[in-house]
Amino acid sequence: MSAPAGPPDTGSDDKLDRGVLKVAGVVVLGAIMSILDVTVVSVALPTFQSEFNTTVATAAWTMTAYTLALAAVIPITGWAADRFGTKRLYLTSLVLFVLGSVLCAFAWDIGPLIGARILQGLGGGMLMPLGMTIMTRAAGPDRVGRVMAVLGIPMLLGPIGGPILGGWLIDVASWHWIFLINLPIGIFAFIAAFRVLPKDQPQPSESFDFVGMALLSPGLAAFLYGVSSIPEHGTVRNAEVLAPAIIGLVLVVAFVFHALRKDHPLIDLHLFLNRHLTIAVVTMSLFIVAFMGAGLLFPSYFLQVRGETTTMAGILLAPQGIGAMVTMPIAGRLTDKTGPGKLVLGGIVLIAIGMTTFTQLEADTSYWLLLSSLFVMGLGMGMTMMPIMTAALASLTHGEVARGSTLMNIVQQTGGSIGTAVMSVILTNHILNNQAATAYYGGVQTGTADQLPPDIFEAGRSALAEAFGNTYLVAIVLVVLCIIPALFLPRSKQELRTDPREEGEGEGEGDVDQAPPVMLH
After folding, report:
1. How far apart are CA 493 and CA 203, in angstroms?
2. What are the boundaries of each domain within the chain?
3. How many Cβ atoms sit within 10 Å of the Cβ of residue 187?
4. Is 232 in contact with 244 (CB distance < 8 Å)?
5. pLDDT at 385
6. Cβ(236)–Cβ(426) under 8 Å?
């Protein structure tokens, strides 16, 4: 069924009006819950081990199961949003997420807890792509940059606030409250979403791509499971890594061939005919692998080399979030006016400059230098991630936004998992290649580092700091490589708003607002 190509008229004033800000507030609230729960559980893993008398690997499944559920449900979000309407699906996602949170809190063993985390992930996985779709449609093409900047807030708060919130709740109450806190927030978010979010018309005639779902959802989950197992085994050459990763990759490739032949695939790969979206996907993939992988190392350095508590490690990362909050709203406005190209290039340069400090890490590197560097990196991040997202979505038609949002979230989820695994393995190999670093790191893991002889303790700390620095050399190379695709991002408002697929089919037909009706895919 055809859908109107352009979003509703937003008026001549391109400022974010009160109605759009209300929608943004509701969406951000849901996104914060979803993203926080990716990181808030990380600090509870030792508690789960002792509480349920289980192993480290089994306890880690409370994080892995949530992540895999996110990856599995994201591909169907675009179709479901078109079929049932974004508001109805968003409310359903909130209910699933809150129900999963309550079941997590009342879990009596590690198995039921992992099962409840899967349910929680199924709801949480849809919140972010749905939020992007709702906000993009509400704001219209001329304000996509600004609404993407607003949606970037939970992406910043999650990695920083998760460990702090989780550690504090466990300290003052119990592990149950890292899940129960979602109940009042979720109820408030549901009421607000019911009252504020605009109604939209579903497209009931479109058939569901069952074959595509059977290929892509388990394919992504299996591939990410294999990739996320790399740090545990320390190598790619392991059956538990290779088997699921290869099976997942085969399923994803099979989906690609299936989707190119089907009229209404689960993910419309014909969106890649839009040059702006394709370039944005390539840029985002490189950026996420580099930045998310490096982001894993920051708290680890503070915890393992500097001996900080989890809560303090989270606080020490705050300058990065503050820096991003400074530039993100400015970058959002400028992206709408001038296009994302120059901003993204400037952001990448700032990230590379800030990260240079971490390539020279020592056991006693000045905190002022580290925090200043994190702030500079935050400034760069605020100019990078959401403008790239804007480049992907701004030239899509109204009916394509849901599928485009879904595609970009798959890229983020996959890139983040790959980056985390790659950086973990590189760091582990650097540690294993140094005897002093291995001895000290083993002591940190078992809580016996302070029992090491003073000379081995200091030598081990220095060697471990050097291992972190060498790993950051790889991260900074990946960051610099982002410059290549970023050079081709739109550098003007006119170029950003023009659908490149219309080029050659008639002048003046590429504008999103004037684009002809398209078939939903």
Report:
1. 31
2. 17-198, 270-494
3. 12
4. no
5. 80
6. no
DSSP string of 434-489, one letter each residue: -HHHHHHHHHHHHT-GGGS-HHHHHHHHHHHHHHHHHHHHHHHHHHHHTHHHHTTS
The answer to whether 121 and 61 are in contact (CB under 8 A) is no
Rounded mean pLDDT, 209-215: 81
Torsion of CA 355, 361, 367, 371, to 10 degrees: 10
Question: What's the pTM?
Answer: 0.73
How far apart, in whole angstroms, are the C-alpha atoms of residue 353 and residue 480? 10
Burial 227-264 (b: 16+ CB within 10 A, else e): bbbbbbeeeeeeeebbebbebbeebbebbeebbeebeb
* pLDDT tens digit sequence for 474-513: 899 999 998 998 888 887 766 666 656 555 444 443 343 3
Tens of pLDDT, residue by residue over 184-203, are: 888 988 988 888 887 766 66
DSSP result, 216-231? HHHHHHHHHHHHHTHH
Q: Which residue has the tokens 């037909």?
A: 509
CA dihedral 474→475→477→480, nearest 10 degrees, is: 180
Do 203 and 3 meet the contact criterion of CB atoms below 8 Å apart? yes
Other CB atoms within a 10 A radius of the CB of residue 191 amount to: 12
β-partners of residue 519 are 2
177, with CB counted inside 10 A (0-12, 13-18, 19+), is middle
Per-residue confidence (pLDDT) for residue 376, from 0 to 100: 94
**Rounded Cα distance, 458 and 222, in Å:** 41
Residue whose structure tokens are 């009252």: 195
Whole-number Å distance between alpha carbons of 388 and 283: 7
CA 446 to chain centre: 31
State residue 377's pLDDT score: 92
User: Pick from 215, 156, 199: which is nearest to 378 by CA?
Assistant: 156
Residue 220 identity: L
Decide: helix, strand or coil at residue 498. strand
d(Cα 12, Cα 242) in Å, to the nearest integer? 54
Tell me, what DSSP letter sits at residue 511? B
Q: Are strands 518-519 and 2-3 parallel, antiparallel or unpaired?
A: antiparallel
Contact criterion met (CB below 8 Å) for 130 and 94: no
Q: Domain spanning 270-494: which superfamily?
A: MFS general substrate transporter like domains (1.20.1250.20)
Give every CB contact of residue 132 below 8 A, 6+ residues apart in sequence: 148, 151, 389, 393, 401, 405, 408, 409
CATH code of the domain made up of 17-198: 1.20.1250.20
Report pLDDT for 11: 40
